[in-house]
Amino acid sequence: MTWKAATGLARPRQWTKNLTLFVGLLFARRMMDGPSVLLALQAFVAFCLASSAAYVFNDILDREADRLHPRKACRPLASGAIGPGEAGVLAVILATVALALGWLGGERLAIALAAYLLLQAAYNLKLKHVPTLEVFVLAAGFVIRVATGAWILAVEVSPWLLLCTMNLALFLALAKRRNELTEMEADAGAHRKVLDSYSPHLLDQMISIVASATVVTYSLYTLADQTVEKYGSTHMIWTTPFVIFGVFRYLYLIHQKQLGGSPEWVLLTDKPILATVVLWAAAAATIVYL
Question: Among 14, 32, 161, 233, whose CB has the most other CB atoms within 10 angstroms?
Fold first, then answer.
């Protein structure tokens, strides 16, 4: 197995999703606490390895369908650059090292990683074929990350923040399904069976609902009694415009630029989105720590 094939299977570009593990560190005012930062970094590395193991497992199962997709056909398994046996060994190694890191980080991190891997296994084997439920499972993966980032530090996380995370993840997942459906058209179902159960109109309605819910739940988080008491003011509400702009920008990219099929690519390459994330993080950190 070549290094290029291994990294292609591991999809390191997807590791940006694991940055949500640092949300608890930020809002718990632990960014300057060395042990807490090291534990969060350990959790980040462990979840990167665990998510890569899940991606390899997914590619083994989907290698035939991926050959029908214009971009996924270039993946190592779909292109034949690597065999399923070698890929399976890589998945086991990644998952084992992830769990070992989790165990070294404490019981809570180990439990969270095991739960995440079990959820991903269930998704890849069965749940990804169940309409609507499949996007909720994807969203649950993000909720697990945010909750884990707080749980391992023994800090309380706002239910509103977890609900906002779920809505944002649903928004991104549904946008991805819409992109796949419109890009593949008649061949969409052959690539991903569950796409036969959706239509662009249905997905647009769902996207509108969760986009609105994302803004509303984040706004409620900023004004919740728990938030105001923790930070001593209602200033967190002033970070809401960044969230609204980010949602608007992503909707623009979905409908006007036919993007949304790769949220991590959008995050890394779309300058307005990237600037919005950086400005939101800077504003939130200023309010939390000053």
Answer: 161
| Fold classification of 1-157 (topology level) | Tetracycline Repressor; domain 2 (1.10.357)
Q: How far apart are CA 77 and CA 87, in angstroms?
A: 8
pLDDT digits (tens, 9 = 90+) for 147-169: 999 999 999 899 999 999 999 99
Write down the domain spans for the chain.
1-157, 158-290
35 DSSP 8-state letter: H
**Lookup result for tokens 């591991």:** 10
Contact 77, 64 (CB under 8 A): no
For the chain, how long is the longest CA-to-CA vector? 58
204's tokens: 């647009």
∠ CA 286-287-288 to the nearest 5 degrees?
Answer: 95
Of 14-18, 43-47, 120-124, which range is least confident?
A: 14-18
Q: Are 16 and 264 in contact (CB under 8 A)?
A: yes
**Which candidate, 155, 132, 212, 189, places its Cα nearest to that of 36?**
155
